[in-house]
Amino acid sequence: MMVSLKELKPNESGIITSIGGTRPIRRRLMDMGITPGARIIMRKVAPLGDPIEINIRGYELSIRKAEADQITVER
Amino acid sequence: MSYRFALAGNPNSGKTTLFNSLTGNNAHVGNWPGVTVERKEGKCKKTSENIMIVDLPGIYSLSPYTPEEIVARDFLTLDRPDAIINIVDATNIERNLYLTTQLLELGIPTIIALNMMDELELRGDKIDIINLEKQLGVPVVPITASKNQGITELLEKALSLELGHDLTHKNALNNSKICDTIQTISDLLTANGYSNTLYNAIKLMEKDEKIKDTLKLSPSLNLAVDKAVAQAEHQTGQEIEMMIADLRYKYITESISKFVQKGRKEGDLTFSDKIDKIVTHRILGLPIFFLIMYLVFQVAVGTIGAWVVDPFSAFLTETLPNVATEFLTWAGASEVTQGLVVGGIITGLGNILSFLPQIILLFLCLSVLEDIGYMSRVAFVMDRLFQYFGLSGKAFVPLLMGYGCSVPAIMATRTLEDEKSRRLAITLMPFMSCSARLPVYAVFAGSFFAAHQGLIVFSLYSLGIIVAMLSCLLLNKTVLKGDAAPFVMELPPYRIPTLKATTLHTWEKAKGYVIKVGTVLLTMSVAIWFLQTFNFSLQMVDDSSKSIFGVIGGAISPIFAWNGFGYIKDTGAVHWQIGAALLTGLIAKEAVVSTLGILYINQGTEELTGALSTALQTHFTPLAAFSVMVFVLLYVPCFAAIATAKKELNSWKWTLFTIAYQCGTAWLISMVVYQAGHFLGIGLA
């Protein structure tokens, strides 16, 4: 099922299918390894509800929900 | 021959540690992104060859986002080092090699230093280095920079590279759908006399504006390039920029993954993850953060600090001046000499140096937090709050550095992506109480609120934060409108700080402080003594209020009438000493204390042994003392900070705005605090 990354529950994982958003931020996300086909694991949400922590390509990355909403994953 | 080697790699991959190991320097190493904000150079001490090592800021790709990333890219592409030592974190190899694929396109001789091999082994992972080397087409040397392992071999192999020549390395984008387009553009550039064509061709395809500006293509060539790119986009039906990033990662996963053997399953929890479960926990995260901050202040300025500071301070401000006076009297020194040595030098420096233990403790705490890797967790935990104020959690690290010293903190704002956040952070920086203000608080709080010293200092630090927050809201609505910056941040693994690194780190900062005290403040102390001993006709005066300093201080003091310290408490005379002291505080905040020390104690009305506290108590009410502390907290840190801000903001208009904003805020808040206290009848006796 295709959902936005934001909708994954902690410890759930998905395969990235597409990345939306404006150009500079999209490019930055891809530079950090968020590319189609990569597996992404939702780790947790920060204490105040934003940002989120994800595991991608074996390391931990933090992005905001606004960006996570632009990333579509196959659950 | 002399050569220049550049150290390039991702943030947190250990570049600075390797740099220190190669050059024997003690550069500042920290476990969070953005520690190296400007490139550093040092001579390599491990070989007889003449090699300069250049440590660059960490970068994730050759498409820069932040000013510090531009520093790194410009050095690599415009200055072209003779070789690149690409440092790759072996425990995070997939993402680290993404930069490698781009570095190889520069055509500069390159060697890969595969770092953190010890951590890799601990995780139970293995890398087939021989085959990895074959696949990448450049030498790969396993090292552990923190333990000095593999450094000699790395250097030997680096020296055997074809230094200074342009080379063709393996290209990650070969055999891809856009390979032909790259070739076409590359040929066009070669035909028009451009060098380094592979890199430039790829950057042009990515529509990199900065490269377009540097290359200054002729209109016809520009048109030909655009046509080739448009054609490729049409054929593949994808945006080239995205496709290139995707192709690079595909190349890495397909060709590299077979050489990396993971001891754990993907996504399994590491030791760091387990710590993070608690430290960044939804409910526990914030209380832990506040607890840590509270502990830091208790250690640095609270009970534990006082335990170290008090005896040290007593020696410097009481014992030493007394002994010196006795000695000089015995030696038959003139009154002027005695005044200069005891009143000018010993009192001035003693008052400042007596706070050295506290400053060392504060630096020690911050160093430990940095070296552990807690700083990026702080950014993670605090981001939501910062979003509300129009900043990102990343601004927390520079702002926190502001507690040490505003100068490096202002420089560290280069880790922020957009101009708006940087301006905002630089304007707010002085509200983060720098360590030079600590002596001022310590002396005032110690004299007036001895029983609640820790609490008073804590209230000042908190007030600084509150003023910073309100300023954010105000500036965001007025002069700095715009959207909040995005937030994409790596959370590096926790590392146990080594005793060596932490001591070095603390020592570096403490040394900076002692040097500042020893040079700037010594000159200042002598100058202040001179200005308060002589009048404008250069005659010695008995009453220092008639001295040069007395006149200037007297002229500005009435500004503080509403703040409660413009006039001396009982007599109501113009309080010229505080005006003069605040003025010298612009050169360095510590000078406020030394100036007061010199001005009060040398008036002849006080005994030296009574020291500064007694003098302060006769000049200020407790409320006025608090008001002074508030003013000192908020007004511009020092000339060095102003100069740094000017450099970073690159605009006189903005620099003058920040100065006016900070001084205005300081005056206003301190006035409000005093008037409110006065109305409520607090602390007037």
From TrEMBL, chain A:
Q: Which InterPro entries match?
A: Fe-transptr_FeoA-like, FeoA, FeoA_core_dom, Transcriptional_repressor_C
Q: Which domain of life is it from?
A: Bacteria
Write out the entry's keywords from A to Z: Iron
Keyword Iron listed? The answer is yes
**What range(s) does the Ferrous iron transporter FeoA-like domain occupy?**
3-75
* Name under which the protein is recorded: Ferrous iron transporter FeoA-like domain-containing protein
Organism in which the protein naturally occurs: Paenibacillus segetis
Automatic annotation (TrEMBL), chain B:
* Membrane topology, from the record: Multi-pass membrane protein
Q: PROSITE patterns from the entry? A: G_FEOB
Matches recorded under SUPFAM superfamilies: P-loop containing nucleoside triphosphate hydrolases (SSF52540)
Q: Where in the cell is it found?
A: Cell membrane
Keyword Cell cycle set for record: no
Domain FeoB-type G, which positions? 2-164
Q: Which domain of life is it from?
A: Bacteria
- Output the Pfam families linked to this UniProt entry: FeoB_C, FeoB_Cyto, FeoB_N, Gate
Keyword Lyase part of the UniProt annotation? no
This protein's UniProt keywords: Cell membrane, GTP-binding, Ion transport, Iron, Iron transport, Membrane, Nucleotide-binding, Transmembrane, Transmembrane helix, Transport
Locate the transmembrane regions by residue number.
283-307, 327-348, 355-375, 395-412, 424-449, 455-475, 513-532, 547-568, 580-601, 621-642, 654-674
Homology family: Belongs to the TRAFAC class TrmE-Era-EngA-EngB-Septin-like GTPase superfamily. FeoB GTPase (TC 9.A.8) family.
| PANTHER family xrefs | FE(2+) TRANSPORTER FEOB, FERROUS IRON TRANSPORT PROTEIN B
Q: Which NCBIfam families match?
A: feoB, small_GTP
Purpose: Probable transporter of a GTP-driven Fe(2+) uptake system.
Q: What is this protein called?
A: Ferrous iron transport protein B
The UniProt gene name for this protein comes to feoB1
